[in-house]
Structures are given as structure tokens and as C-alpha cells.
Amino acid sequence: MSRLKIALVYGGTSREREISIKSGKAVEKALRKLGYEYMVFDPIDGKEFIDKIYQYNPDLVFLALHGKGGEDGTIQGVLEFLGIPYTGSDHVTSAITMDKVLTKIVLKHFGIKTPDWRVFHSQQEALACYPVLPVVVKAPSEGSSIGVYVVSNREEYVQAVNKAFRFDEKVLVEEYIKGRELTVSIIDGRIFDIVEIKVLEGFYDFNNKYVAGQTVYECPAAIYKDLYSEIQSIGLKTYRALNCRGPARVDIILSEEGVPYVLEINTIPGMTERSLLPKAVAQSGIDFNQLVEIIINNSLKGE
After folding, report:
1. pTM above the 0.70 mark?
2. What gap in Å lies between CA 150 and CA 156, rounded to an integer?
């Protein structure tokens, strides 16, 4: 029976609140089985959250937050100021990786292939552009594919731009790469098997991520050995370029020509029964409870 005191944080104020709660409850079940002393905190009320977690004085905060206010460095900065250790990447890395534009700038600097892109800071500016279609229009600071639209004609482009600006103050218009959707899971530098995401209809948007029966997952992905290793290496290079720590997941498109392109990196991967990180580590014989224990132990060692 562990005597460590864990503060489990989930919920929050983002559009991904319900997914965060699902992740948090799965982690909570594991903490209970593993025998940890823990308490659940929901940062939906910022000041109350800070007061309560400071009074609780945990040995570690396990973050199961997704989206703005949880995955973007906000909570991480607060915990660093309070001197409380937590799982996952620090506030700087979290802020950069939450913003797909900043992430792509870092990727380009390190020579990591990512689809070409343009950024627009107003609807007028974006609508004055006539990109070569198809393209992907993204609200760059949202997660779970919220505010992401694949468009193939001008009418769809105009609608997507208008919708994306409801989510964010800037919009990312990205080259569309047709290919296979892959993800590489990493925990403190350890690379796990690649998961291929096969969507029955459309692309891997919010609905296909969280509605049962809409997506098939293959792990390990059926890719020939040398390319498989190359994709894993690209995932690790991305992880290191962005100075990640703890668990992370790198999303990649493998083009029809066999070229891997990094789309983004998630620094607090989902921990639900449908999430990709648990699927990947399970292939290495690590069950969900062991995954939670690994994350905790590595965080406390400062790895």
C-alpha cells in the first residue's frame, strides 16, 4: 500500500471537459486499485482550486486535463509557482505544443517534415486567400480535432474559416496530405508500437474519436520494418525537439508516397478506454494500472 499522496486533476473549463472527466475517472480507478492515497480536484474554479490543492500539499499532481486551461501550460505554471511536482511536460513545452502554429515552427527548425501551412489573424485576411484545394482548416489552439475541417471547394473553405474563428483568434490553413493516420506514443524517451487509425468515414475528428464503432485501430501498424523504425524515430525526435517529458503522443500522416509528416504532439494524451496511448503500451504487455504507475514513478524521479 503506497503512502504517496496524489492530487488527481481532471475536468476544467475547456471544450474537452467531458473527455477529461473520462480520462480522470479511468486514472482514479487505477489509483484506487494501486493503493494510493489521493484526492480529486477540478480546476473549474481557479482560485478555489489553488487554495484546496495547496492545502492538500500532495507529493504529486496527476494531470488528466485536456484542452485550454489544462494542456496549455496554465495549470503547469501555477503548480510550478506553488512548488508542487506534476506529471507531464513543463509549462513552456505545454504552451508551445498546444499551439499547432508554434509547434510547426519548431518542427521546421529541427528539419522535421510537417505539411506546409499559412496562418491568418482575421477572417478578412483568410477569406482573401485562395489556397490550392483541398486544405485543412484548423483552430490551432484546440485539441481533440475541435475546429478542424477538411475542405475540397471554395464554399467549404469559407464555411470552415468562419467556424474556426469562433474557436480561436487565428486560423491555420494547412496542406492536405492524403495518407494513413498514425500515432507514436512515448513515455520519457521510451517509444512504443505505432497505432494506425482507420476511420470508417471522413477523417479522425471529434465524432470519430469518441463515438464507438466509427474507428478501427491497428497496433502495431502494418508498415515494413525500416519505415516503421523511421516513423518511431521521427516521433522521438519530435518529442525531444519540443523538450517533452512524461507521456506524449505524436500524430503523423504517412503520405501515399511513403513520406511521414508530423501533424502535432499531445502532451497529455487521453486515458480513456478508447485512447491511443493505453492501446500502444498494452502491446508491450503494460496494462492500464501499470501505465499509471510508470507515469507516477517517472514523474517523481524527475525523468
Report:
1. yes
2. 8
**CB contact at 8 A, 102 and 267:** no
Q: Where are the domains of the chain?
A: 5-88, 96-112+177-301, 117-175
For residue 216, report the phi and psi dihedrals to the nearest 5 degrees.
Answer: -110, 140
Distances from the Cα of 47 to the Cα of 78, 157, 188, angstroms: 11, 41, 32
CATH of 117-175, one of 3.40.50.720, 3.30.1490.20, 2.60.40.10, 2.170.150.70: 3.30.1490.20
Beta strand 148-151 with 135-138: parallel, antiparallel or unpaired?
antiparallel
pLDDT category at 211 given cuts 50, 70, 90 is low
Fold of the domain spanning 5-88: Rossmann fold (3.40.50)
- Residue 213: CB atoms within 10 Å: 7
Confirm or reject CATH 2.60.40.2310 for domain 96-112+177-301, answering yes or no: no
Q: What are phi and psi of 53, to 5 degrees?
A: -70, -30
Active-site annotation, residues: 16, 144, 210, 249, 251, 264, 266, 270
Beta partners for 151?
A: 135
